[in-house]
Fold each of these.
Amino acid sequence: MAAVEVDSGFPRSPRGALKIARALVAFVAFLCFAASRAPGAYAALAGMETVITALFFLLYLLKLDKKMSWLFWPLADIFNSVIAALFLLVVCLCAIIIKSNNGTLAGGVFGLVLLVLSAVDAVLLFQKISLGGPRGRNTAK
């Protein structure tokens, strides 16, 4: 069995730091929604975003995107970021407008911060990929 390589520079790269920030903000939004007993869709979206972002972080950290080259992972990451941003826009605006309590309001605000981080992540990923060139890692500075 081959040893798994670890890209120790990825957490310090702009994309790595952005993934960590997305996961942390999504987890805080999840905690706010769960503690305020908000409707299940709010907490479910924040929880799913936490898990998916952590999985993408691990994918790049452990260089699994090189080993599983059957999928163009940066493009999948862009799709995740764009779809998450769209869902976050709808759900978090609903949470802020309805504002059943202060926890729901805080979760909505953290969700909007997460929306901005998702959009920035999608733009950075889009700038790094080249659809006509060879497939390579997108963790360069």
Amino acid sequence: MQSEELQRLTASEPLSLEQEYEMQRSWQDDADKCTFIVLDTERWSGQACADEDCMVGDVNLFLTDAEDPTLGEIEIMIAEPSYRGRGFGKEATLMMMSYGVRNLGITKFEAKIGQENEASICMFKKLHFKEVAVNSVFQEVTLRLDVSDQERRWLLEQTNHVEEKSYVELKLPAGVLET
């Protein structure tokens, strides 16, 4: 990730393309991480361009609290600026939350967002998350959603149009070494 704006918004370090692929490979093998790649389906379904040219971001779910396996930390990144504010982040977040609830037994979600990232904070609040903490040292806000029966029904209703398909491993681009 080379964009200074994205690094600031996501509290990330710059990564080379090879480092990005290595990180994705490690996440695929980790039982405590789940990643969905966000695609522009109009571009992807027409196959007018390569798969990687259809990517606009990703959504991640981290299951890192060994004492509470029902808690998932969720994060969303829409990397392509022209796709922000168009509903891609909201839809991808809802799909990941639905997947977490249905397949992983998640009943609580947390999102840690930089205080200046007002668009993300607003989006999560629209998805019924509530602010539970502010960390002035890291300049981030923690938002939380406890998935009650009513929230579960609402979430599944929001994603009832989604068809889940099996993961198919794609070939790496030329020049990227598999380890």
Amino acid sequence: MRVLIGGGSGFVGRELTRLLKHKGHEVTVISRQPGPGKITWGELESHGLPPCEGAVNLAGENLMNPLRWWNESYKKDLFSSRIDTTKSMAQAIAASSRPPHSWVLVSGVACYKPSLTAEYTEDSEWTPFDVLSKLVKEWEASALLPETVTKNTKQVVIRSGAVLGRDGGAMKQMLLPFWLGLGGTLGSGRQPFPWIHVSDLAGIIAHALEPPAATPSPSPQVFNGVSPTLNTNLEFTKELGRVLRRPTIFPVPGIVMNTVMGSERAVVLMQGQKVLPKRTQEAGFEYKYPDLNSALKEIVGT
């Protein structure tokens, strides 16, 4: 299978590329910079979709970029980097004489309203309630294909939790303070922490890229890209401390997070959702790292 990956040079994209190549598939990455095995976004728009059986979009400005201050310019970049790239790929697929059999968008669980008690599956209804849920709504809408195309192309949306791995993502910024013994809970620590190991997210995407067994639905199939284990921030903090053999006695007050990150962005860490991968498991996906202990041991190499 030939797979086209938007944003394939990023953290998740590198893991997905490794997995697909290991399975014997051919990968082309859409990137800002040209190079071997790559096309640019400009080339996609001017020359159209290259021959492929599967397409994935992972592109988007890093929400947790520590070098970016939370302001209107940054929010605009968060929206445009996701929505514009997704639209470009969807339009190229729609215009292709031989569209791929599978089109996968990876979005996020920020669509689900934070709660200490509510549990969300892929069937849960939701409406936008803040800036990040509005982003998910517009992001997923930008991926929709015309009905004439959906007769042959399966549409899939994977809503990812915090992605954990040794080469990037959420762990990249957490490991140093924890190694130094300065780690601690965020706020009360009671908030749910939906997460997934990067290898499992890549596996779910690869699973979703498989050819449809029947005529595709005109609506996207939604899968929650999260671990099957429900955890809180406190449980994550204590488990990471155990694996690193470091104390976790320095909680970070909510007011500090709101000041440093901006309250609209800090909500991702200071609040959370209990998200269940019901349909992901029903589809037969088997997790390599279904719990925090196995995931964190792989990440820190113990």
Amino acid sequence: MWKVAMSEEVGKALQSVVERVNQAAARRPKTLPAVSPRLVAVSKTKPPDMVVEAYRQGQRNFGENYVNELVDKASDPLILDSCPEIKWHFIGHLQKNNVNKLLGVPNLFFVETVDSAKLADKVNSSWQRIRGGSTQRLKVMVQINTSGEQSKHGLPPEETVNTVKHIVSQCPALHFSGLMTIGRYGYDLTLGPNPDFQMLLSRRQEVCDSLKLPLEEVELSMGMSTDFEHAIEVGATNVRVGSIIFGNREYPNSAANTPNPSPAPSPAPSPEKTSKMVSEEAAKKMQHLTVSGH
């Protein structure tokens, strides 16, 4: 009975988000590259059954924030048997000592959080060894700390071009595919376009100008449950949405990335849950906003 209810809830929620993604894409200015946005369903803390249900509903891209959780989930027999075409995105902070473990994940599709040239070098050398005789390059994004918050990971924006140049010229096993940011939580859209998203747009323009790359070949991963529609409207090609598909997250411990963590006294709230939802008035205002590609 529980599985039937879960199936219906996940299916309806996913369908609603897909429709909202498509509607937001239709509202984008014609000056932006006509790239269909990719929906990444963020399944952290959720059981394999929920991933399988979303997969059955047509979802293929899934995101995880913690290496150990991704390793366990991607190797789960239920997911391996039921989801042969699943594409895993790693969207959390990556430490160099976890690179080998991450790159061994079955069906790893994207590493969205490369935030230094040194980390890129480590991922490059590890992927060269793991892929063996294969010539398949690993898709990576460079994570930018657009909000300047110490609590956020990512490159300082001014280091973007040099880091991308390093990956393109010195990391032959990697395929530089775009830029990613988290941005400040709870931004009030009645104040205008999100400045963190605008920052990522401008850094993409700099990268494309410097490396002579077409805009449509450099993706922008930005936007989560509370702001993915605005992110798409201003140019996101990849949005990371979790709680409004799978429900609010439950954190059974305070160290989700450790093998045997001890229980915490109380669950940590999801940032998506604490962010303010955009008002109807703000959403209508954003529909009429024109944003340039620079």
